[in-house]
Amino acid sequence: MAKLKAIYISHLHIDHHMGICTVLLQRRNLLQRLGLEVEPVMVIAGRFMSPWIQTIGEDFIEDINSLFELFSTNDFMPDKYWVSNRQRVRKQLVQRHVTNTLGLTEFRTTLVGHCRGATGLLLRHKKNWSLVYSGDAEYSRNLVALGKDCDVLIHEATFSEEEKDLAVLHKHCTTSQAIQVGQEMNAKFTLLTHFSQRYGRVPEFNDSFNDKVGVAHDFMRVRLTDLPLLPMFNHPLELLFSSERN
């Protein structure tokens, strides 16, 4: 928590950002106990976040406005033809500030299909690795283009193949669609996450899984060099958690 520098909010659904106030306060309390300076965290989110977090900050039991610095995901998207030179310069300054603070060479976002303003993310590190995160999203050509040849794709895989209609209705992906995105962008590894609760802690495994696809868990930490080991756990995980499926 003390090392936390930035929080990325992919979209406006409240289950993806409601806990941010508690995170900011707990981080501040920890830094104070450690005798460290409480520098604001960068919060990178859609425009919806500004009025929401400002209101929460004013009405919260404790003032949190000094604990974060808010940036719009729009500032990390490609320029549109109507952007003025002044706006373009401001975006460049914002991008430079964020990438320098996080030790990155690139931080980019793109719109994805889920709800208004939903975005996916690409980041490239100075140590020459890249990561793409889908957020909540249906199959997205924008994301495929953004993440071309990335090292790691973290993609939601909410529904099983038998529930394609639900995936379309709720603008989510099936496991096979998520894996397809990774294949089309030529990702070196695809890490699946955000599984429907009806499957328990793992998705429904199928024939689309391969040696470049692994399964994520809450609080999981894995080195980039160890990612190729994750597919070895897919079958044991399927056996271990099969009884949890509804």
Rg over CA atoms, rounded to whole Å, is 19 Å
Number of domains as seen in the coordinates:
2
Mean pLDDT: 89
- Label the overall shape: globular
Question: From N to C, what is the helix and strand string?
Answer: EHEHEHEEEHEHHEEH
What's the story with the biggest beta sheet? 6 strands, mixed
Name the CATH superfamily assignment of the largest domain. Ribonuclease Z/Hydroxyacylglutathione hydrolase-like
Work out the helicity level.
Answer: 25-40%
Main-sheet strand order equals 4-5-6-7-8-9
What features would you describe in this structure?
The protein is α/β, with parallel strands linked by helices and 246 residues long. It has 2 domains: 1-102, no CATH class; 107-246, Ribonuclease Z/Hydroxyacylglutathione hydrolase-like (Metallo-beta-lactamase, Chain A), CATH 3.60.15.10. The chain is built from 7 helices and 9 strands. A 6-stranded mixed beta sheet has the order 4-5-6-7-8-9. Strand 4 (104-111) and strand 5 (119-125) form a beta hairpin. The longest helix has 18 residues, at 85-102. The chain is globular. It comes from Lingula anatina (Brachiopod).
